[in-house]
Design a protein that fits this description.
- There is one protein chain.
- Helices cover about 10% and strands about 55% of the residues.
- The relative contact order is 0.15.
- Keywords: Signal.
Length: about 240
């Protein structure tokens, strides 16, 4: 009788264990693949890059399974041309939501022509999502330019900026954007001595009052009187 009771208890325990395991499997939520939205390639999403200048690329990433890495690839449509392959983990790994915002240096030697941009997000479960965009590399001698950009944080919420800005079609304005963490602010400059010039020594002290200590990106955008623009990026640490 005792053996039958023990056997019954063993079977009952086995049944409960299996039932709980099945319930756990059923309750387990499988995260969907990552999402990539709002892809922008080039200034105002014009899908154009210029040799020797920055290329703006931005997108919004959502990954319920948490981001493992983000990979950016740029390849020529033809057999030869500029190629780029960079994988990012810093600032992305482990996050469910992230803003991908990079300014890529386009080599001065980059061949003109058609390219493909591929942004790939892999989550920590190994699920992969890709998004593509066309890109054209062109040479435009009338485009504004920024040379010898120097950025230095001088303390007391003040950034020192120094650069030479050029615009064959004459300068209309310069916009400086500072962002990092939750801080984001734009500063617009239309100095009378600068507007209408083709070359100008841009020297400013920008105050970022209220910005917490941390790592920041700074963008300098030159807009000419024909509406064309170019944007360059640098970094600094506020301590």
């Amino acid at each position: 009788m005792k053996m039958k009771t023990n056997k019954f208890l063993f079977l009952a325990l086995l049944f409960v264990t299996v039932l709980n395991a099945c319930k756990k499997d059923n309750d387990e939520v499988i995260a969907p693949a990552p999402k990539i939205t709002g892809l922008e390639v080039g200034s105002n999403n014009n899908k154009t890059a210029y040799p020797g200048n920055d290329l703006h690329i931005e997108a919004t990433i959502e990954a319920e399974g948490n981001i493992a890495d983000v990979k950016l690839e740029i390849n020529p449509v033809s057999a030869t041309g500029w190629k780029l392959s960079t994988t990012y983990t810093d600032g992305f790994k482990g996050l469910k939501n992230a803003e991908f915002h990079k300014h890529i240096d386009v080599p001065a030697t980059a061949a003109v022509g058609d390219y493909k941009v591929v942004l790939t997000v892999t989550d920590q479960a190994g699920k992969i999502t890709k998004i593509e965009s066309d890109l054209k590399v062109v040479v435009d001698p009338t485009l504004p330019s920024v040379a010898n950009l120097e950025v230095e944080y001088e303390g007391n919420d003040e950034i020192h900026l120094d650069a030479t800005v050029n615009a064959p079609s004459k300068i209309a304005k310069v916009v400086v954007e500072v962002h990092g963490g939750t801080y984001n602010k734009e500063f617009e400059f239309t100095d009378a001595a600068m507007v209408g010039q083709t070359t100008y020594k841009f020297h400013k002290h920008v105050h970022i009052t209220g910005a917490p200590n941390g790592h920041y990106h700074i963008h300098v955008k030159v807009i000419d009187q024909a509406g064309k623009s170019i944007e360059v990026e640098d970094h600094f640490d506020k301590k």
